[in-house]
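Obj.: predict assembly geometry.
Materials: sequence records (below).
Method: joint structure prediction, all chains together.
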Amino acid sequence: MSKGSITAEPPVRAAPPSPHSVGRAGYLTGIFFLGPALVLLTVWMVYPAVYTIIRSFFGTTGYLGNWVGIANYERLFTTATLLRAIENNAIWVAVVPALVTAIGLIFAVLTERVGWAVAFKTVVFLPMAISAFATGVTWRILYQQDPDLGAINALGRSVSSFVSTPGVLPNAIPSTPTMHTSKGAIVLKTPLQPGRSIALGLTGIPPQSVPGSAKQAVQPKAKAGDIDGVVWRDFKPGGGKPGVVESQELGLPGVTVQLRDSSGKTRTAKTADDGTFDFSGLPHGTTYTASIGAQTFAKPFGGFSWLGPKLITPSLLIAYIWIWAGFAMVVIGAGLAAMPRDVLEASRTDGATEWQVFRRVTVPLLAPVLSVVFITMIINVLKVFDLVIALAPESTQSNANVIALAMWRTAFGGANDFGTGSAIAVFLFLLVIPVLALNIRRFKRDV
Amino acid sequence: MAAASPAIELPSPRDRTSAKILRAVAKTPLHLILVALGALWLVPTFGLFITSILPASALANKGWWQIFSHPSVATWSNYDKLFHNSGLLNALKTTAYIAVGNTLIVVIIGAMAGYAFAWLEFPGRDWIFVGVIGLLVVPLQMALIPMFKLYDTFGIFDTVISIILFHVAFGLPFAIFLLRNFFVGLPKDILESARIDGASEITIFLRLILPLGLPAIASLAIFQFLWTWNDLIVALTFGQNVQPITVWIFGQLREFGTSIDVIAPASFISLVVPLCVFFAFQRYFVQGLLAGSVK
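Observations (raw structure tokens):
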């Protein structure tokens, strides 16, 4: 599991006073048992904490000697990437603790009366044993943008293919300036009268995109009362004349051609294997606009950029919730198991619905456990580091920045700015102090 | 005879079975939801594993689920190559040293301190314990810069022991807190009678406290092992040539797309050990978690 605190409000029982007399021997025994721990805690935690606080008022390099006052703290709130880190951490705190607690509660309640609950809980709890770093790598594989590579976007593509089918010619463009692109459709610029045969040439179509049934393109003859024409791949190896159907140029079958008259009424026709289409029975004297429908050129689902600058933080939040949901579920599940059954049964007997029991009895009784999970998650989220550095590609790490990562990148990521790095560390420390105060108050109350 | 008095007749076995079936059917949506959720929690790790057994050529233009249509592309060659990679083997060794070393030291020193706070009487005991509780939430970012300088001054930067000691210090507050709370709950009369019999505190600690405290010590050991095995930030800061597996993989991340046939199997190797530890000692893991977070 990631090195996170799992203790929000430590339960502490007061030590029983020992009748053992406190003499010199008692003192020595105390030093013997406690000494190693106190030395380690002093040298590795207390001294560094004091040093970091002092260091945060000094400049970038060297030891103490370059007093800069609160300039490092000012930089913390004026530098864009550091501000972004604070903003992002605020999002983390606003979203993750609440969601993790809620999901943990739902999972705990859902599994309460299921025979294979242990299997389910083990599966959901598994990510807790894995390093946040490996989880980052795991999710980075899932989040890849290309729907052929990233599983999530592959899923997105299959869903979107139900909603809209990609067009047959996603990248085609007009071959001559007689046509222009408008709202995804390709439109013939000049209005038409019946009795015309038009040529709608397209290029930018790779050979493998041409439908297999395609035949040599044919320019149909103009007929009175009709507007006909051809849609074809206006490209011939070695050149050729744009806008003119030539030998070895293939018609494009299955393309939707639209014909709109001045009143706005639209007719459609599909092209044949040789690319020809025909609108017949058109009244004389009306002008028409011909176009190839936008659906022909609809781009296939390209995938969301989960690891891009915009979505990287939501992507991180999802992976983080995936890790910690199991923790919340297990802790809340234990609280649920310890709940007085008779209270629940009594309210059910009184005719309360399951939802009412959940809302009015279960949740209030679980409130202490829920708040422990919630507070624990606040601390963990403030310290998040491994997942971000593993999941966010270097190009978007500034967008994904969080306080712990900003501290590390400032102090050790090349710039080696120990002054600002210290200030960020102190800022992080200040954010968790309320929890520290809560812990100590709780201990004193119990003594 | 019983059949003659239908009023007190028990429901026949068949009735009970049908009731059971009915209840099971009523629960079907719930089961389906849970199966879906369970799949959601399994797929990412499963995907990592499948990715790790596909050759780079197969991964260049198709994701890991191609295995369903072409199972034959799977190969152990990625792992084969990794197990001949001295960098990875060294990283695994380093990780094991750090995780085992840290776990042993934290358990020993933490148990001693926990015993002192629980059962020894000396001035200022409770105040010092309040201080230790205060240290529980100190972010390790507070110590990175000073220890970086201190290690440099004493010439122990980039050594396994310097990484271990950093982990030990930051593991101790939780260790002391967990073990003291467990030791306080041990039966008082056993300890008192041992003292009356003239046993020294060291004897009591070794012969009574450690064996009796084993469940809590096991929980602690598992936590410490997993924390240090999975650590990235400490080793990334204090190690350069000394690289545990997370840092080694981190060094490959820059070429994520092209080194995926190294990154995926190495990541999977890195999580196999924690998973085994978790499955072997799941009970202690959950106990420690609950002791740490709920009363």
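Conclusions so far: Chain A has two domains: 35-149+305-446, 173-297.
To do: check interface contacts against the pulldown list.
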